[in-house]
Amino acid sequence: MNQFKSDFLKILHERGFVHQCSDLDGLDALCAAGPVTAYVGYDCTGPSLHVGHLLSIMMLRWFQKCGHRPIALMGGGTTRVGDPSGKDESRKILSLEQIEENKASLREVFSRFLTFGSHVTGSGNDARMADNAEWLAPLNYIEFLRDVGRHFSVNRMLTFESVKMRLEREHELSFLEFNYMILQAYDFVELNRRYDVRLQMGGSDQWGNIINGIDLGRRMGTSQLYALTCPLITTSSGTKMGKTAQGAIWLKAEMLSPYAYWQFWRNTDDADVGRFLKLFTELPLAEIERLAALQGQEINEAKKVLATEATALLHGRDAAEEAAETARQAFEAGVAAEGLPTVEIPRDELIAGLGILSATVRAGLASSNSEARRAIANRAIRVDDALVEDDKATVVLSATADAVKISMGKKRHVLLKPV
After folding, report:
1. E strand or H helix at 193
2. Out of 3-17, 20-34, 352-366, which region has the weakest mean confidence (pLDDT)?
3. Cβ neighbours of residue 191 under 8 Å, at least 6 residues apart?
4. pTM, whole model, 2 decimals?
């Protein structure tokens, strides 16, 4: 086991964040010597990041907690181009107004995990949000080709996995996207010049892009730059982290309620509990080892701790505890708690009676009538905690009720509210 000098790498190694590093000993010595500035880049393709981004955000959080300076780089410029990494087709080009709106929305997400102080009263390791449009948008194309483009070999670029995958599958790779890796490499150099950034972090799928930046920095005379990547997380069942039948697990409450976020973590597979506690909470390792060692039904207590701690980091302790209490009431007390996800249904439909198949689909518990029918056959659907055995049954709002609770299994519950 590595004996790290820096708290940052020691913590990341113990918790399972480290996948690849360009020079582990060199980076360790740099971090141990004093405050370092590092960044992770995020394109502004939507108003929220999802749980797949959470690992790199946690790396920035630990970086700041260890006394260093984190930068969340917004891709206001590169979003106009599109990263081909891991994609089979070109990204939709957004308007400048959409990009600005997304950037403002994303800052709210980062403010949950990082401390952005003011330049007047802030501390020396306050987080910064930068935007690569500041230096990419004004670029003179001829000068850029001469000063930066000449350092890139097309032969080498064609060997990168993101490019090879598209070409091997005979999917189009536009010249616009081909330039993405050059622009991202230039970000590293420009951030070094402006803010003395020495380290770029990201997911393992960004390794080639980050190494490009280190190589460009060496050719353009920067200080020694470093790369550190985290693994792309898959669950014990082999699925990509955050991919569910209901869609992405968003980090904005407007797109996914704190209760639904809590439930996502509560539904973690038994085999993943210990690993996820290390990566997505700040609980001490000794406590994590105790929780991960629980067996049988007791592992559910560890899952609740994981859900509450992960939700508290994003939505705050009050929202996390409220979600936990809502779950306790819904699952243990068997009542239709107000904090459950809701779907609005016209009052006339609920009073007249809504078919159970349609109700299950509209609640988001099934993607089709046939899937809902199979769930009923498997005795998985309940309405107000009563088992549904007939797929021709109807859901009716009683005169004394404010909503109808429809459930699939023991963990998924939705309120149908009349409007």
Report:
1. helix 180-195
2. 352-366
3. 39, 71, 73, 130, 197
4. 0.78
